[in-house]
Specification:
alpha/beta; 2 domains
Amino acid sequence: MSNKRFLIMAGGTGGHVFPALATARMLEERGHQVFWLGSRGGMEERLIADTGIPLSLIHISGLRGKGTLALLMAPFRLVRALSEAIAVVRKVRPDCVVGMGGFVTGPGGMAAWLTRTPLVIHEQNAIAGMTNRILARFAKTVLEAFPQSFGAGVVTRCTGNPVRQDLAAVTAPEQRLAGRSGPLNVLVVGGSLGARAINECVPRALALLPDADRPQVRHQCGEKNLTAARKAYADAGVEASVEPFIKDMADAYRWADLVVCRAGALTVSELCVAGVAAILVPFPHAVDDHQTRNGQQMVTAGGAILVPQSRLTPELLAETLRDLGADRDRILNMAQSARSLARPDATERVVNYCLEAANG
């Protein structure tokens, strides 16, 4: 098999960027060339610049909540973005274009179709987004992390979500949690961009617990929320390690007995691969409420407790933490149930489908 050239499109949030990066790294390990198409101002502009992967950026952003003027200008901006994407595809000359989510995949996917370049798309969420539903009509291969995310009428391949290989190497729950006692180690993760409701509720919930029962907390709050989150813990009189962004998630999951987090697709996949019990608080404004659907499989298996944000109160969270802290056998059972849903070969499966498309 000759070496191939791949143009990966992903941006906006960690839920798109990190699965794409895992895919890119495995393609590189197999001797193939990888290029990246992102959007200006997205988190990929910072993250991918540090990886050594050639990065091209186009002007594209979302329209929700931008007002009437943005809607009127949208057709012109889409034409501009499409023109920029076509220029990148013609410059890179990829054997395959791989869409992993984010606003950039719309014009990038259409550019692949217009230049007759094989297109592979991957849907991370349990309900396919509008862009991927459109691109599915033109894609050579449609991949999904959760079964039936596109509904009937679309031929898909269920792969799971690519995660970084260091997460798959996290020790199994029965070994990792053996012999642990005392207060829980609780990892609080608001997602790569943070989650204000979780950031505000957790310190107040911990303050309701007696010192002897109060968990040890490590909290990722998002860069924009750092000052407010640290103040919330200080005001509550609760000690915690508060960080804007955790780079070594494998180490964080290894340390944790329990995770309190959103139910983004990547987060749910990482929890399952690492085998960690969770309290999931889905983002209530996610399109089609897809975060609730993302977490449902984990809840059904017994690996997580789901709390709608509308019901999230310090009192409820404190009670849940108290109950789980008093029953470490339940924590272990939840972790094992989460691990049973893992697809540790997801990255390899996605890469193999990309190679299949590139080889015609």
